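Re: the 422-residue chain
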Amino acid sequence: MSDNSVLIVDPVSSGKLYPRVLQRYGIEPILLDTDHALVSEFRTAPTPGALGFAADLGNSYEALLRMCTERSVAYVIAGSEPGVELAERLRADIPGCPGGETVLPQRRWDKQYMFEALAAAGVPTLTTRAVPAGHTAVPAEAVAELRAGRKLVVKPARGAASVGVRLVETPGQLTEAVTAITDNAGLFGGASAALIQEMYPGPRVEYAVDTFSTPAGHELVCVTVYDKWVSESGDFIYEKGRWLDHDDPIVRELAEYARRVLDALGMRIGPAHMEIMSGPLGHRLIDFGARAHGIGHPQHTHVLTGTSQIHRESEYIAELFGMRAPAERGGGYVLSRHGALVLLSVEREARYLGGAEAELADLPGVQEVRMAAEPGKTYPATKSMMDSVALGLVFVVADSADELDFRCTEVRKRAGDFFTTD
């Protein structure tokens, strides 16, 4: 057994998977809840067995550092997006703890600094303008672009799961979207700047690229492609994420672009989740998280490839602690089957009738049904990935891409039968 310990900050979403994997190596992690995860509703109750940053440590960073020293914390994991900033700060302040570059660490969690860092490093990016928190005046250049017939995307500088991301087409919509972000508490409770970004021109495809970084370099763990549509209110609705084969021609291009992003953001240790748009402009980053892919995605990646960001990070920690011999790394990943994660949604306010789990589980190819909707409860029109997670997710596999698409379409159709607008 190692004398070192691992701290997981906000072990929610996919972060809940870490303890079980770490325990395979005899590592019992220390769990820490913060109010950021509670305010954002990433969790609604205390994590079993976790320390509370507020309840147990009085929200004192000095007390947290003392606890880390007393319990020999030598590695810190960001268990979800709410925990990234605190995890990054701890990595810099705990002697010998692996971490990213300490100069301007905000570039890894605040999108305003993020896109500025990409531009400074010469990484192709979308034109982005910022409106500071507490301000509502929009840039004249953005208004002029809308009047010229262009579309823009407004998003919070601090956020996750597409919450607050809006497509706007008029100056009025622009002001409304910006004010909703800058004039209110953000997803994690604090104020956030609003970013106004050029709309990637069509035809365009969005990919999720998941990596793991060590001092030896950046490793590609998996790539998925999103199917989504824009609702009447201008919100982006995700239908499914489909895993791509490593030998798909686009994967090599995305991996090279992703490495440039990771270098520009000073990512040196741990998993990263990127959302990258591709099309006539080439590859452009639209979102980034210095943590593992959320919504339980890594457990499905493990089913399809035999590994995941969480398994890879746990393995790396065991190697650092001398509890596992370092292994040689391959050049990529191999899919055992075609797979997709279907995200449920409702186009308008609807009441869940209940009983979808059993019927969906019997459909061909369905490996897991994770219904979060409660029978009899009414849900608003889906506006973000968080809204979809509040309804449910379905993991589907097949032997061919065509068969997978057919099965996913059937899942969404049958799931819709269990929601009523009456």
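Residues 249-264 form the longest helix (16 residues).
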